[in-house]
Amino acid sequence: MSHDISALRKFVSPEIVFGAGSRRSVANFAHNFGARHVLLVSDPGVADAGWVGEIESLLTEAGIQSTVFTGVSANPKVEEVMTGAELYRSSECDVIVAIGGGSPMDCAKGIGIVATHGRSILEFEGVDTITNPPPPLILIPTTAGTSADVSQFAIISDPNRRFKFSIISKAVVPDVSLIDPEVTETMDAYLTACTGVDALVHAIEAFVSTGSGPLTDTHALEAIRLINRNLEPLVSNTADPYLREQIMLASMQAGLAFSNAILGAVHAMSHSLGGFLDLPHGLCNALLLEHVVAYNFPSAEDRFRRVAEAMDIDTRGMNTREIKKRLMNRIIELKRHVGLEARLAQLGVTTSDIPYLSGYALQDPCILTNPRKSSLKDVQVVYEEAL
Ligand SMILES: [Fe+2]
Questions:
Q1: Any keyword NAD (predicted)?
Q2: Which of the listed CATH numbers 3.40.50.1970, 3.40.50.1360, 3.30.1960.10, 3.40.1190.20 matches domain 9-184?
Q3: What CATH superfamily is the domain 189-386?
Q4: How far is the CA of 292 from the centre of ligand 1 (A)?
Q5: pLDDT digits (tens, 9 = 90+) for 122-154
C-alpha cells in the first residue's frame, strides 16, 4: 500500500450563508464574535449605493458601534491597508466587516493582518507568512466574481513596484461569508461581465491546476456550467434576480475551487498587468484567457475536454484538435457577447512592457500550479499573442 503525501488534499472554507437577504444576519454573527466596535470596510461606490448605511444600521440596532472606512480604490494599495489598520487600532475595533467587491474585501484582509502584527503589509507577501490570527472577519460580496469572501487569497497593489502581490494563507479565509444576490443588483452590465469572466477563469484555472483534485473538481465544473449558461443572459438583463443568483452561486463555487486548488498563468499574468496599469482584474483576465488556454492545452488535454463538456460542447467523436478549436471558439464568443473583446494594446500595453510584465508574472505564486511549466520566454510569447 502506498502513502504518497503529495496526493493529500485539504479544503478550507468560511462559514457560508447563501441566499437573498443573508446580509441581514451580519449583526448576529458580529455579536457571536463578541463585537463591541466593528471596523466596516467598503468603497465610495458601495456606500453611494446605500449598502454601507444599511449594514451600519443593522449593527447599531444590535448595540454594536461601528467605524466606517471607505478609503479603498479599485486595486487596493499598501497605503490604504495601512490607513485602515491605523483606524482599526485608534477606534479600538475588535471585529472587521467588509461589504464590497474584491478590493474592499482584500483590503479588509490586509487590515486584519496588520492589526495583529503591527508591521507593514509588504512583509506578508507570499504563502503562509501569517503567524498571529487576525481579528474575526465577516465579508459580504457585492460582485459575483472575485470570491475574496471564500478564498485564502488577498491581492494588494504596491505602487512603488507597480506590482500586485499575493498573500496566500488559511488565515485570510474569512470566518463568515454572507453571500446575498440582492446586493449585486447595483452592478452595471460592464462590471457584471468583468467579474463574471473572472469567476469563469477561476473555475477553469482551478480545474486544470496541478493542485486540483476531487474536493475541488465538482465545484469548478459546476461553476463553468452555470457561467456558460447564465452569464450572457445576465449581462443583457442585469435586473433578473434568478440569473443574479445563478451567477452568484457560480462565483462561490469557483471561489471554493480556486481557493483550494490555486490558479494558473492567467492570474499570474493578469496580476502583473493589473499592478502595472491599474486595470480592472476581470478585464485583464478576459484578455488573456484564450491565449493561456491555447498555451496550456497540450499539457492538460483530458482536463480541457471536460471543461469543453461543461461548456455544453458535445465532444463525442471529436479529436483533440477539434475539441481545442471548439473550446477556444466558445470562450471567444462568450467574451464577445458580454462585451470584453479588447486587446492589450488598446489598454496601453506596448511590446517594450512585455519583459517587465513577464518577469513579475513569473514571481507570482499562481504560476506554480499552472499545468504547463512556463519559462520567461513562454510568458512573453503569450503576452505578445494577446497584444
Ligand atoms: Fe481572479
A1: yes
A2: 3.40.50.1970
A3: Dehydroquinate synthase-like - alpha domain (1.20.1090.10)
A4: 14
A5: 999 999 999 999 999 999 999 998 899 999 999
